Amino acid sequence: MSARGPPLVVVFNVGAGHGRADEARATLQAGCAEAGRPLLLLEVQDPRQLSAIAHQAVAQAKPCGGIVVAAGGDGTINVVAQAVLDSGCAFGVPPQGTFNYFSRTHGIPADSAEALKVLLAGHTQPAQVGLVGDRVFLVNASLGLHPQMLEDREGWKRQLGRSRMVAFGAGVGTLLRGHRSLRLRVESHGRERELRTPTLFVGNNALQLQQLGLPDAEAVGTGCLAAIALRPVGLVKMLGLLWRGAFGRLGDADELIQVATRQLTVRPSRRLGILGSRRIKVATDGEVTWMQLPLSFRVAAQALDLLRPRAQAHESQATE
Predict the structure, then answer these.
(1) Kind and range of the H or E run holding 279
(2) CATH class (in words) of the domain with range 135-299
(3) In whole angstroms, how far apart are CA 118 and each of 3, 142, 153, 254, 257?
(4) SS3 for 286?
(5) What CATH class is the domain 8-128+302-318?
(6) pLDDT in tens, 31-79
(7) How far apart are alpha carbons 151 and 204 in whole angstroms?
(8) What is the reported pTM?
(9) Region for 178 from its dihedrals, namely left if φ exceeds 0, alpha if ψ lies in -120 to 50, beta otherwise
C-alpha cells in the first residue's frame, strides 16, 4: 500500500461521458500523480468486456487494499458494483454518464477533478444495494413496459444522442407502438395479491424517486425499496403519466400502486397455469436481460463501502 493512500484500480468505460474520455483519463492521471497515489487504469473498449474487467479490477485491488473505481454511467457502475459487493474492497465513482443518479444521490460531484478529490480523501460510508435474484441494482429494477422503453431508448440515443428529451421522446414512441400487461402474483409484508400491470418498477435511489414526485423516496436507503406498479390504463392516460413523471408529479396519480418494502416476491399469476414458468425481461440500472420467474427483490445484507464526501452535497446536485 502507498504511504499516501491505497491505489486506485479504475474500470474506465471509454464509451461513457459524451466523448470526454480523454479529458477524464487525463484528470485521473494528473491528479493521482500529483497526490502520489498509485493508479491502474483498466480501459473498457468493448461493453461485452465490462464484467470480466470489473472482476479483474477486484482481483488486483484485494491483495493491496486498493479501491475499485467505476468510471462511467449508471450501467457501468452497476456492473462494477456487482463485482465489488462482498469483496471487502472500497468502491469509488467519478460519474461519466447522462443521468448519474447513483453518484448524485450520494453527493459525488459531476466534475471529474472534484470527484477525484473525493476518491483521494478516502472517506467511506455504506451505500444500500438492491438485489433482484443475484443481480445488483443501485438505481432501479423493472419488469414489463419499462425495460422495453429502455431498449427502444438505446436506439434513439444512437441516432440522436443522449439527453432527457431524447429519453422522453423514446418513451412516447414505445407507448404509441402498444404494449401488453403482465399478470403477476406479488407478495410483500406477508400478503400476496394478484396484479395486472403494464410495468412493475422497484426503486433504490431516493433522488430519482424524488424527481418523479413519488412519496416513498424517503424510505429508500433506510433498508427499504420502493415498489411501484401501474394499473392498466389506455394510451391517453399512459401518455399523461409519462408527462407527469417528466415534471415530477407522478406521485399524485391515482393509477399508481405504491409500497415501501424490504422484500418483494414476484411469481406468475395462477391464471396463467403452465405458462407461468416463462422467462421475463428485467432491467437493472438500464441494462436489460432475461430472468426466470419467480423473482425476489430485496435489500442486500452487505452494503457497498462507498467513497463519498463527508458533508452531504446531494441537495445541490438534485437541482441540476
Answers:
(1) strand 279-284
(2) mainly beta
(3) 18, 31, 32, 42, 38
(4) coil
(5) alpha beta
(6) 999 999 999 999 999 989 999 999 999 999 999 999 999 998 888 999 9
(7) 21
(8) 0.84
(9) left
